[in-house]
Amino acid sequence: PGGAAAAPLPEEDCMKLNPSFVGIALSSLLAIDLWASKRLGVCAGEGSAWGSARPLMKVIEVSGHGIPWLLGTFYGLCQSDSSAAREGLLNLLFALVLDLVMVAVVKGLVKRPRPTHNKMDMFVTISVDKYSFPSGHATRAALVCRFVLRHLVLAVPLRVLVVLWALIVSISRVMLGRHNMTDVLFGLLLGYALYGVVEHCWLSPATAPALFALW
Predict the structure, then answer these.
(1) Mind telling me which residue stretches traverse the membrane in this protein (predicted)?
(2) For residue 120, how many C-alpha atoms fall within 13 Å in the half-sphere facing its CB?
């Protein structure tokens, strides 16, 4: 009958017709992230706008890679004859391993693909490196930056250089097309937080005598 009320729409149809504000906001942010990241990927290939700077960006990429940091820290730990230096290097090694594990876990859970404009010529990759979120380089840069500033006595110019290195490594991830901006931003936040975990679990001769007995 004309006066009868229309049958209510199924719940799933209502959701499609009336998407939540949060859903719209997240979709919009994702679209902006992808668009801006592609625009900023000016070194993603040799033919890109800043393609001539790509070799320099790849050197910066290596400077933030986990393998050089792990090998360098382990070598320093083996060569050090100072108990204070060994304690610092052992905790830096712990921080780097924690960083690798946490980034691998998050990448495996989120499984966000790399940007479509990324050229897969990265320096030494493993299986989870096909995923993009979060940026391991950004996580490591923030973690190492906090560690160095906290535990090394450096002149102000050197402290500024450490911070600049962390920022340049992070920015280079987007410029090379390796990551979207949100991958890098989350990576920086994760690295900052992981340093707090390292400080809370600080390894010393009193808390981990077996580890220090190895050196």
Answers:
(1) 89-110, 152-172, 192-214
(2) 11
Q: Catalytic site residues?
A: 137, 179
Average of pLDDT values for 161-165? 97
What residue segments make up the domains of the chain, in order of their start?
21-214
pLDDT digits (tens, 9 = 90+) for 86-110: 999 999 999 999 999 999 999 999 9
Taking 50 as the threshold, does the pLDDT of residue 9 lie above it?
Answer: no
Considering the four listed CATH numbers 1.10.3470, 3.40.50, 1.20.58, 1.20.144, the one that applies to the domain covering 21-214 is: 1.20.144
* Predicted local distance difference test score (pLDDT) of residue 209: 82
What whole-number distance in Å separates Cα of residue 116 and Cα of residue 177? 8
Residue 139, Cβ neighbours under 10 Å: how many? Answer: 29
